[in-house]
Structure formats: structure tokens, C-alpha cells
């Protein structure tokens, strides 16, 4: 791949994004930015959410896992499916009934001020860390395989990436993202399909024969029955289910797209459609991973990290066409996770902490200026975080940061579960302390689980433990009340 070709692809891709931005951002206002004026077609949202849910990390990581974990990740994906059903049937009716723009407004109505700020604050922390890490991993791949050859400094690469995101999200917000995600999902899926084709061609075997060999081999194993195994199928299933409930249903970024749909029934159709497609897409990624393992074995390809398997083979072994396909897929996977995070963080901070939506005395022009300032501020935070991760340059540390970011969703799970399934009123001022203590306890439990629980290793299920500890903490500092159950309109605490 020549530098000219890479640059041409990037420019062409960017121009397509800007064209969509131009069309969707015309006559945009606050409601356009936050909830797209509630006119988003549900089927467009469903399709675009595929790209947003997978991200650039998934694009590289899931295929690389197959060599070590076989197809066990499919049990997590089946859990995702049932988690999306819970979101559609329990959480979405609540959000629509309360007419929320920020989903954390529910916590204020149900518990009070401090619970509200705690929920929104934990979302902001988790999104800043998680989104920055996802962007770093993708940008770092582009730097190693592309920009280092041009002697382009890493910080310039980061600056260009973030600047592009600012430009096409600043005005249109979620309204623009709904449509750009559609484009990006299309390119990402094409990249997977074409990569499978190129690998089969290089191996000299048709796709159907390779699939037959795959399903006859141990690599296609989905169900792990050893109870002490971190990927036991029951643990995988329920972890996937609750990961979805928390990281989608209790996440402003993902729910903001659903709330841009006018009617609840259409939003539910979106969720059920998206969850079905997601199963198919995850399976496609696993098949791609198996084909990559076959190719690596045939060509004696070795990589230091499993995440490097896909980019290494695509750029260095399969020829220019496959490299172009991977590059487009990687870019398409990177942008949705970044633009959605930036928009949702701006929305949450503007509404949950600055109270722009409730402020009736401030005119729209001033609100827009403040929102722009928040948008640029979070973009700058992303920039700094990515540079810090680059300086660390330690995959073990980065993995721990991912874990820490995941822990922040546990308190959200506990808060919402307590609010939806009990009628008790919490001591609102205690909520921040409970939400901090629970993930700290979980972190130490994960470090010493083998010693404490006879060799047992926690996996994704630590999220459930985190939520349970938060729930019990809230229970300990609560009293009988008349709070709602499920989707009833809550009383203020």
C-alpha cells in the first residue's frame, strides 16, 4: 500500500462523512443534537448501532481471540440477545414514559440529587476512559502500520482523528451520528466479508470447505463446561446479558440513539432487530478469526499480541487490496465509538451537570455556545488521555484500565435495579460513597479470588458482584417508601 493510496482512501472516506454531516446538520437545534428531533427511522438506528456496539477494539480483538478461546464468545453474544430484550421491555418503556433526554434523570426523580450526579458521573468517567482507550488502540495500529512510514508524529495523527470527529458531530450531534454510523457499519461488515474471501483465496480453499473444516474442529467449540474455567458457558451467558443491560441500557451513548426514535414501539423494534443482527455479526467475526488462525498456521505468522493478528496478516501478507479493505474497516469501526462517546458526554454534562435543558432563562444562542465549549473540552480530554496511554505503552496497564472502566458500570446496575425492583427510599447523600466502595471491593476480590475462593477466577461476572454490592449498600441505607416498580412514574425522593 502506497502512502498516496492510503491518503486517497482516507480523504474519500472523510468527504463522505462530511457530505452526510452537511445534509443532516442543516437547521439543526438543541433537540437535533440531543435526540435528533425524535424523527430517526428505527431501522436506520438498528443498523447503525451494529458499528457503534462493536467498535475498533472488537474489529481487532474478537478475531484474535479465536485461537485461544475458540467460539466461546458466542455464549456472551447469546447473553447480549437476552439483555437487549430486557432493555426493550423494561428500560425503554421507563425512559419514554418519563420523556428523558439524559437517562440519568430517572435517578434524580427516584432517589434524589446525589444519586443523580453519581450515576451521571460514573457514566462520564467510564466513557472517557473507555472511549479514549478504544481510540488509542485503533489510532496506534494506524500509526504503526501506516503513519510511521511517513514519519508523522503520533500526536498529529491523534489531532487529525479527533478534529474530524469534532467537525462532523459539533452541530448535528446524534442526528448526524445516526446516519454516519449507517455508512460506517456498511463498510465494516464489507471489510469482514471481503477479508474472509481474501484469506480463503490465499489458502487455495473455497469458503464452504474451510467452514466445514472449522465446524468439524475443536476451534468451533462454543460451550465450555468446566466450572472453574473463566469462560464457563453459564458465566459467559449471564455476563453477556448483564453487560448489555448496563453498557447499553444504562449507557447514555447507546440509549441516546434509541431516544431519537419518535415512538416506543419503534424503539423496541429497533432493539429486537439490532440484537438479532448482532448475533450474526459476532458469528462472522469469529469465523474470520478462525480463518486468520488457519492462515497464520500455514504461513508461520507469529504475533506478540492476539490483537495484532488481523492487522499483521491484512497489511503484510494478503496484498494491497486486503490492506485497503482492512484499513477502511478499521476506520469505519473506529469512528462510531468515538463520535457517539463525544456526543453522549456532551449531552450528559450539559444536561446532568450544567442543567441547560431545564434553564428557561437562557436563550438558545448562549446554550449553543456553552454546548460547543463542552464538546471541545471533552475532545481535548480525549486528546490528552490518548497521549498518556501512548506514553504508558504497556498492554497490561491498558487492560487493567479497561477493567477499571468496566467496574464503573456496576454501581449503575445496582442503582437501577434497586430503583426498579424495590419501593424503598435511599439516604441520598450516602449513594456516592456506596458507588465508590463497591467497585473498589470488587477490584480486590478479583486480585485475590483464587486464594479466597479455592482457585475460582472471576471473569465478566464481576459486573454482577459489583451491582450486587451496590444494591446491598443501598438497601442498608434505605427505609420503606412508596417508590415505583418497573416503569411507573417515580416519586421524588
Would you kindly provide a written description of the structure presented here, covering whatever features stand out?
The chain is 75% helix and 1% strand. Mean pLDDT is 83; it is low at 489-493. The chain has a two-stranded antiparallel ribbon. The longest helix has 36 residues, at 264-299. It is built from 20 helices and two strands. The chain has 493 residues and is mostly helical. The protein has one domain (3-402): Sodium/glucose cotransporter.
| Full CATH superfamily name | Sodium/glucose cotransporter
Residue fraction in strands: under 5%
The figure for the number of domains is 1
Low-confidence stretches: 489-493
* CATH architecture term: Up-down Bundle
The biggest sheet, with number of strands, parallel, antiparallel or mixed sense and barrel status, is: 2 strands, antiparallel
Kindly, what is the distance between the CA atoms of the first and last residues, rounded to a whole number of angstroms?
Answer: 61 Å
**What would you call the shape?**
globular
Order of strands side by side in the largest beta sheet? 1-2
CATH C-level class is Mainly Alpha
Overall pLDDT confidence: 83
How large is the count of helical segments? 20
Report the structural category. Answer: mainly alpha
The total of beta strands comes to 2
Order of helices and strands: HHHHHHHHHHHHHHHHHEHHHE
Helix content: over 70%
The whole-angstrom Rg is 22 Å
Amino acid at each position: 500500500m502506497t502512502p498516496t493510496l492510503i491518503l486517497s482512501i482516507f480523504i474519500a472516506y472523510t468527504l463522505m462523512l462530511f457530505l452526510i454531516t452537511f445534509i443532516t446538520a442543516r437547521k439543526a437545534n438543541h433537540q437535533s443534537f440531543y435526540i435528533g428531533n425524535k424523527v430517526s427511522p428505527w431501522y436506520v438506528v438498528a443498523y447503525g448501532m451494529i458499528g457503534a456496539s462493536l467498535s475498533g477494539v472488537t474489529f481487532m480483538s474478537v478475531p484474535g481471540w479465536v485461537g485461544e478461546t475458540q467460539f466461546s464468545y458466542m455464549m456472551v453474544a447469546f447473553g447480549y440477545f437476552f439483555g437487549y430484550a430486557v432493555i426493550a421491555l423494561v428500560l425503554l418503556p421507563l425512559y419514554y414514559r418519563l420523556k428523558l433526554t439524559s437517562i440519568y434523570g430517572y435517578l434524580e426523580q427516584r432517589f434524589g440529587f446525589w444519586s443523580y450526579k453519581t450515576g451521571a458521573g460514573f457514566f462520564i468517567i467510564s466513557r472517557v476512559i473507555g472511549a479514549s482507550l478504544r481510540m488509542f488502540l485503533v489510532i496506534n495500529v494506524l500509526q504503526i502500520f501506516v503513519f510511521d512510514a511517513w514519519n508523522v508524529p503520533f500526536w498529529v495523527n491523534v489531532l487529525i482523528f479527533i478534529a474530524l470527529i469534532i467537525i462532523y458531530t459539533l452541530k448535528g450531534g446524534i442526528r448526524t451520528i445516526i446516519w454516519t454510523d449507517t455508512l460506517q457499519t456498511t463498510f465494516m461488515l464489507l471489510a469482514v466479508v471481503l477479508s474472509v474471501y481474501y484469506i480463503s483465496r490465499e489458502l487455495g480453499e473455497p469458503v464452504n470447505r474451510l467452514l466445514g473444516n472449522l465446524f468439524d474442529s475443536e476451534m468451533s467449540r462454543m460451550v465450555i463446561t468446566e466450572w472453574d474455567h473463566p469462560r464457563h458457558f453459564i458465566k459467559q451467558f449471564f455476563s453477556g446479558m448483564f453487560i448489555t443491560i448496563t453498557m447499553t441500557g444504562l449507557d447514555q451513548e447507546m440509549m441516546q440513539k434509541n431516544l431519537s426514535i419518535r415512538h416506543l414501539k419503534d424503539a423496541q423494534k429497533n432493539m429486537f432487530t439490532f440484537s438479532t443482527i448482532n448475533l450474526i455479526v459476532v458469528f462472522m467475526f469469529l469465523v474470520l478469526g478462525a480463518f486468520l488462525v488457519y492462515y497464520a498456521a500455514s504461513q508461520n505468522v507469529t504475533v506478540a499480541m492476539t490483537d495484532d493478528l488481523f492487522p499483521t496478516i491484512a497489511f503484510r501478507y494478503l496484498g494491497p487490496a486486503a490492506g485497503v479493505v482492512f484499513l477502511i474497516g478499521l476506520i469505519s469501526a473506529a469512528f462510531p465509538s468515538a463520535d457517539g462517546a463525544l456526543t453522549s458526554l456532551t449531552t450528559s454534562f450539559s444536561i446532568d451537570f450544567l442543567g441547560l435543558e431545564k434553564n428557561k432563562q437562557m436563550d438558545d444562542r448562549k446554550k449553543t455556545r456553552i454546548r460547543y465549549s463542552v464538546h471541545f473540552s471533552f475532545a481535548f480530554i480525549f486528546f490528552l488521555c490518548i497521549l498518556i496511554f501512548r506514553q504508558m505503552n504497556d498492554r497490561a496497564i491498558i487492560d487493567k484500565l479497561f477493567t477499571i472502566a468496566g467496574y464503573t458500570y456496576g454501581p449503575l446496575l445496582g442503582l437501577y435495579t434497586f430503583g426498579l425492583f424495590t419501593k424503598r427510599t435511599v439516604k441520598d447523600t450516602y449513594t456516592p460513597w456506596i458507588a465508590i466502595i463497591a467497585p473498589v471491593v470488587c477490584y480486590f476480590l478479583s486480585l485475590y479470588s483464587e486464594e479466597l475462593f479455592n482457585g475460582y477466577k472471576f471473569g465478566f461476572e464481576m459486573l454482577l458482584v459489583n451491582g450486587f454490592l451496590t444494591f446491598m449498600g443501598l438497601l442498608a441505607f434505605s427505609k420503606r417508601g412508596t417508590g415505583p416498580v418497573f416503569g411507573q412514574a417515580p416519586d421524588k425522593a
